[in-house]
Each structure stands twice: as C-alpha cells, then as structure tokens.
Amino acid sequence: MSIPEEFLKQVNALYQQFQAHDAQQSDRLNRYRNIEPESAHLLAVLIRAQQAQNILEIGTSTGYSTLWLANAAQSTQGHVTTIEIDSERTKQAQSYAEQLQLRNLVDFQVADALYFLKQCNEIYDFILLDAERDAYVEYWQYLPNLLKKKGGLLVVDNVLSHASEVAEFIALVQESKQFMCVTLPVGAGLLLVTAN
C-alpha cells in the first residue's frame, strides 16, 4: 500500500512551515528541529516492513515524525506513544494529528523522557530516539529492556550531523554483545539497532 497523496501533501506543507520557523530562530532550543523528510519516509517503510504495532517516540517536538509513525501504524494496526517535555509543542503536535485524522493512533505524553523510561514496563517493536543527545548515554541503561528481543528496532536520528555528541552512546551500543547496529547516511544520519 502506497502512502496517500493527501497525507504527503499535508506533511510536506507542515515541514515547510516548520523549516520557515526554524530559519527565524537564533537559539537552537527555540527551533523545532524536525526529522528530515527522507528519514521520516524510511521510518514509515521500516515500520511497515517490520509490521510494528507498539511504537515509541522519544522527542515529539511539533509532531512531524509522529505523523509519519502514526500513518505507518495505521497500516499495521499499531499504536504510537510519543514523549515530549514541552507541553506547548505537544499541544501543537496533537492539533496536527487531529488535522490529519491520526489522533486516535497516538498517545501524547508530556514527560521527562528519563523518568518515563525508568517507569516504563512496556515492550516496543519500534523505538525512535530523537531528543536531547546529551541524555542518550543515560537512556541506554533502560532502552534495551523496552525493545522487543526478537525483531525489535531502535532508530536514532542525527548520528552523522552530530557525530561527536552521540559518539559515547554509539560506543556503548557497539560494546554490547546483545545488539548489532548500522549507520545509514539518510537525512542527518540514522543509527539502526537490533538484538543479535
């Protein structure tokens, strides 16, 4: 099943809007910093290929990637849980999900990701990590327990664009005998991690 034209048109318009906003911001933290369209498209393909049903996103921002995850979840009878610490951005993301009629597929949570990961007992088929990179090392002690042992996939964004910031995290993943990983030169660079 191909991705509907109407969905592509709407997410493309949103992406242009988000890019225009970011271009006006001098402070990095005020930017939306959404995932690149080619990366989002690949995530949607991976979810469909994997037939992932329980999907976690860490770092919603304004929900551009969330829309792609939800669109993919629609075709796998799946569901997305997305975590964002900024309540205003979560409200924005919720409104876009409503506009695209994907709201029922997404559980939006306003929370500190580390607190969420510490408390979480769920097992996820697919996890997208696209948050503040200086926290990834701390997240790693919890992420392996949340990823499905057979066929689960963790995808980490910005591993080429911000290579030095994620170097320690990637080293931890590579040291683990439990996991194998590969970096794809798509968008800002995606790290794919799965169990051995």
TrEMBL record:
<dbReference type="InterPro" id="IPR029063">
    <property type="entry name" value="SAM-dependent_MTases_sf"/>
</dbReference>
<dbReference type="InterPro" id="IPR002935">
    <property type="entry name" value="SAM_O-MeTrfase"/>
</dbReference>
<keyword id="KW-0949">S-adenosyl-L-methionine</keyword>
<keyword id="KW-0489">Methyltransferase</keyword>
<dbReference type="GO" id="GO:0032259">
    <property type="term" value="P:methylation"/>
</dbReference>
<dbReference type="GO" id="GO:0008171">
    <property type="term" value="F:O-methyltransferase activity"/>
</dbReference>
<dbReference type="Pfam" id="PF01596">
    <property type="entry name" value="Methyltransf_3"/>
</dbReference>
<keyword id="KW-0808">Transferase</keyword>
<protein>
    <recommendedName>
        <fullName>O-methyltransferase</fullName>
    </recommendedName>
</protein>
